[in-house]
Amino acid sequence: MxxxxxxxxRPRTLLWLALALVLFVYLIQSAAVWTFALRRGEEGLGTRxxxxxxxxxxLVALSETGGPERTLLLRAVNGPGFHVKVLPSWPDxxxxxxxxxxxxxxxxxxxxxxxxxxxxxxxxxxNERASGLGFGPAELWVLARLPGGEAAQIVVSDxxxxxxxxxxxxxxxxxxxxxxxxxxxxxxxxxFAPLGEIAAAAERIGAAPETAPTLPERGIGELRAVASAxxxxxxxxxxxxxxxxxxxxxxxxxxRTLLTRLRLRLExxxxxxxxxxxxxxxxxxxxLLDQHLDFARADAAREPPTRVDLAPxxxxxxxDAAERGEAARFAGPExxxxxxxxxxxxxxxxxxxDNAIAYGGTAEVTLDAEAGLVRVSVAxxxxxIPVAERETVFEPFRRATLERPDGAAPRVGLGLAIARAILxxxxxDIAIADRPGGGTIxxxxxxxxxxxxxxxxxx
Amino acid sequence: MTSxxxxxxxxxxxxxxxxxxxxxxxxxxxxxxxDLAAGLGEARRIMAARRHDLFILDLSLLDGDxxxxxxxxxxxxxxxxxxxxxxxxxxxxxxxxEGGADDYLTKPFHPRELVARLRAVLRRVESAAxxxxxxxxxxxxxxxxxxxxxxxELRRADGTLVPLSDAEFDVLAVLAERAQRVVSRDEIFSELxxxxxxxxxxxxxxxxxxxxxxxxxxxxxxxxxxxxxTGGFLFTExxxxx
Lengths: 459, 242
Known about the structure:
heterodimer; A: alpha+beta; 5-stranded mixed beta sheet; rod-shaped; B: alpha/beta; 5-stranded parallel beta sheet; 8 helices; 15 strands; 40% helix; globular
């Protein structure tokens, strides 16, 4: 029977794969951006070899000039990204803490001639507008004391355009990540969806090779090959089952024809006792044959499910047995409607009752329902089924090793196998337990309205 | 309207010569005139030459499918058809009934049951021809129940199937077809078995008792199928045919 599909694994694997892919690409992109930023850093702002030289030259020139010359000098050096201003005095306001990101101070100390060392005395350097994403400060501030109490303020700024480009790079990276995630999901879905279909198809083929729909052969090459191999396997399985069923049906038809002749001839047998025994034998042969056929074609799946009252169905089986003189009793509600296949259920529960009577002498049948689950328990007072055999008794053509008390006609050993197949076909199952005080309780349980959608009948 | 009493004339189509001959002599001894055909071709020839009251058709014939032939017959003729089948698949029964068969028996059948079913089918057709309410009906409705005569099943108004044994179905059908009048035990018995009950025959009471369990609100106080003091049963509710 179909075990639950490990379905939840599929989307999760898919998500993990997609995330790993995105992370991988993100790392590569980050490495590229960092390289870019570091190169910018080398070329840009403070570490450009020319900047400390420029600052040093301006400071030295300012310390040596005044009046109109200084005005001219300021005009000459001021430009985009480089602003020089002379303050009449050292600013009173509290300055940001000293921070020399680009080692300007160190360089100035190297470049400025020793006779101008006083310029270095009060040198204060800091950076402004440094952002987390900015890969280094955007502005470099240098404040130096000039002779005569004045102060020189030099501001070197990074190009605004460069920062914007960097922001675009970051935004692009995010966008690329999202796009990649989407593409990865779509791409992986294309690989995984057919795999899921194949898994589901394998389940269907296992459950009913004759009626399972053919798997569409699509997807990437290897998946197409798997799908087509599955389809060929299904065809061979279905053919095998068809041949076996046809063979059994053929045998059944011929045997039935012969028995029909025999049955008609028996009407002319004068001894009614003898006739009765012969008729019983014929009925028995037919029952054996039907059991094999039922098992072979698993026709439970071919009977359409319908709303059926289980209570009279089970009670009938008990009363039929009682009318045959067997010790069968029924306890349960007057009515218990369920959704199921009436003939199949009749066969399954009938088999349980027959088994109980054959091996346990009695069949005490209890029907009850609880929370949408219906239970039919068949209890006997036989010698019980050893725990070790509680699974093997369900195997086809197997019988519990215990002796039948009455030495009656041999049994096929399909009753429980058929019953369990039918119950499982209804989404239920059969359990075997010891009965307190001796004997066995076989309990069939099934969901009242949980039967799977009927399989389509082959055309 | 007086015609000399004549035996019902049957045509048996079966491809097994032994079965055909045995059926022919058995049915001949039980009050039928019987023609035999080995296949569809022979059956068509015999049908063209003579009129029959009922066809007995094997489902699988050497020269064609019995169900297909049954459908073909249904389009052109009104004679009842009883199908015999060497196949036990429940689906075959449904196919046969839906193909237009009036009854369906699986081989090997009990010969007496075949005779009883043939008589029941013939009587149904007769009463329909006599202007009874049953003409062309497929099902009977009464007191919130629907008795499907073709599929031989009983359902409640909400569609819930209540399983009936063959015998219970037959008893209920006999009673419902004679609704609102007293039906004697003998009448039911001969309808079902073509004979009078033996002195020790208790099976009818058992059938009725099991039926009441299924269709009566309180089986001890039956309201639908009442026992009549003079020895018989009364189906109390009006029955609607469809």
